[in-house]
Amino acid sequence: MSKSLLVTGGAGFIASNFIHYMMQRHPDYQIINIDKLTYAGSEANVQENTASSGNYQFIKGDIADEQLVNNIFTEYDIDGVIHFAAESHVDRSINDAKAFIESNVLGTIVLLQAARDTWEKTGELSTRRFHQISTDEVYGALDLETNEKFNEQTPYDPRNPYSASKAGADMLVKSFGQTYGMNVVTSSSSNNYGPRQHPEKLIPTIISNALQGKPIPLYGDGKNVRDWLYVEDHCRAIDLIFHEGKALEKYNIGGGNERTNNELTRIICDILDHLKPEQHSHKSLITYIGDRKGHDRRYAVDDSKIRNTLGWKPLTVFNNGLNKTVEWYVDQWEKAPL
Ligand SMILES: NC(=O)c1ccc[n+]([C@@H]2O[C@H](COP(=O)([O-])OP(=O)(O)OC[C@H]3O[C@@H](n4cnc5c(N)ncnc54)[C@H](O)[C@@H]3O)[C@@H](O)[C@H]2O)c1
Ligand SMILES: Cc1cn([C@H]2C[C@H](O)[C@@H](COP(=O)(O)OP(=O)(O)O[C@H]3O[C@H](CO)[C@@H](O)[C@H](O)[C@H]3O)O2)c(=O)[nH]c1=O
C-alpha cells in the first residue's frame, strides 16, 4: 500500500541515502523531507534522484518550529515519521551543546506532539508509526579488553552531550508509546560509512586530507574501536523495522566490522595508494593529536535481535564497502576540489 512518509533531516548523510533507497524500493511512496539545512545538510545530497519525482517534497525548516510542524501534519496525510534530524557530531557537542538540546530533544518532542495530536483525532495513534533513529552511543562505552557488545537490554549510559541528547530523545519517544499508546519504534545503529557524509567525520576527513597531502589527525593513541556499518545496509534495516518491527520495541543494528581507528585509517590509505599511486605515501600523513575529551573507547553492537526476528543482516563486505566509499569521495574531489 502506498504511504506518505515524513522523513526528518533528509538532506544529511544517512537520511539522504535513505531517501535514495526508498525511492527505488517503494517508488509509489510520497516522501516529505523536512530539513533545516544546517551546516551539515545539503539539498544536493537528495537532488539527484528526486528532481523529477512527483512523489517528493522538500520543506526547508526546523523540526523544533511547532507551527511549521503542525502545518505539515495538517497539509499532508502522514502515515509515518522516520526521524533522523539531529545535530550529530560529538566534537561539536563537547564545544557547545545548546543546539543539540534544541534539535535533538526539543525537535523530537515537537514532532511527537504533532503526530500524537493528529493521529489521536483520526483514531490512528496505534496504527500510524513514529520511528526514532538512534545511536549505539546511548549505551556508553565498552572496554577494549572484553568481547562484550551492546544489546537492547544494555542500560543507557550516555557519556557525551551528543549521546545524552539522543538518549533524552529516545526516552521521550518511549514515553509516548507508554503514555498515549502511540505506535513507536526505535533503532540504534553503529557508525555508518558511505557516500554523502559530512567532511567533519573521521572517514571523509581521512580521505579529504590524504588527497590534499594534509596531516590525517587521529585522536589519542588511535586505538579506539568503532563498529562500521555500510549506510545502505542501515537503510535496508530501517525500511524493515519501520514496516515490520514491533511497536514499543528497540532494535540494534551493527556492521560486524570492529576496527581501531588506526586499522581503519591504514586500510583507507592502502586504497588511496592503489587509486592514486602518483601521490605521496598516504600513511606518512597520519598524525596523532590530542584526544577527544571523554573519548568513548569502544562501541560494538549485538544485532542478533533484528537478525533473528526480522531476518536482516548486513550484506556489504567491509573492504568492498570501503572501496566504493573511497572511490565516491575521490570522484567528488575530482569534480570539485575543496
Ligand atoms: N552517522 C552515524 O554514524 C550515525 C550512527 C547512528 C545513528 N545516527 C543518527 O542518525 C541520524 C542522522 O545522522 P547523520 O550522520 O546522517 O547526520 P547529519 O549531521 O549528516 O545530518 C543531519 C541532518 O539533520 C538536519 N537537521 C539538524 N537539525 C535540524 C532541525 N532542528 N530541523 C531540521 N533539520 C535538522 C541537518 O540539516 C542535516 O541535514 C541522527 O539522528 C544520528 O543521531 C548516526
Ligand atoms: C573526526 C575525527 C574522529 N576521530 C576518531 C573519534 C572516534 O573514535 C572515531 C570516529 O569519530 P566520528 O567520525 O566523529 O564518529 P563518532 O564520534 O564515533 O560518532 C559517529 O557515530 C555514532 C554512532 O556510533 C553516531 O551516533 C554519530 O552521530 C556519528 O558522528 O574517530 C579521530 O581520531 N580524528 C578525527 O579527526
UniProtKB/TrEMBL annotation:
<dbReference type="InterPro" id="IPR016040">
    <property type="entry name" value="NAD(P)-bd_dom"/>
</dbReference>
<keyword id="KW-0456">Lyase</keyword>
<dbReference type="InterPro" id="IPR036291">
    <property type="entry name" value="NAD(P)-bd_dom_sf"/>
</dbReference>
<dbReference type="GO" id="GO:0008460">
    <property type="term" value="F:dTDP-glucose 4,6-dehydratase activity"/>
</dbReference>
<protein>
    <recommendedName>
        <fullName>dTDP-glucose 4,6-dehydratase</fullName>
        <ecNumber>4.2.1.46</ecNumber>
    </recommendedName>
</protein>
<feature type="domain" description="NAD(P)-binding">
    <location>
        <begin position="6"/>
        <end position="324"/>
    </location>
</feature>
<comment type="similarity">
    <text>Belongs to the NAD(P)-dependent epimerase/dehydratase family. dTDP-glucose dehydratase subfamily.</text>
</comment>
<dbReference type="Pfam" id="PF16363">
    <property type="entry name" value="GDP_Man_Dehyd"/>
</dbReference>
<dbReference type="GO" id="GO:0009225">
    <property type="term" value="P:nucleotide-sugar metabolic process"/>
</dbReference>
<keyword id="KW-0520">NAD</keyword>
<dbReference type="InterPro" id="IPR020904">
    <property type="entry name" value="Sc_DH/Rdtase_CS"/>
</dbReference>
<dbReference type="InterPro" id="IPR005888">
    <property type="entry name" value="dTDP_Gluc_deHydtase"/>
</dbReference>
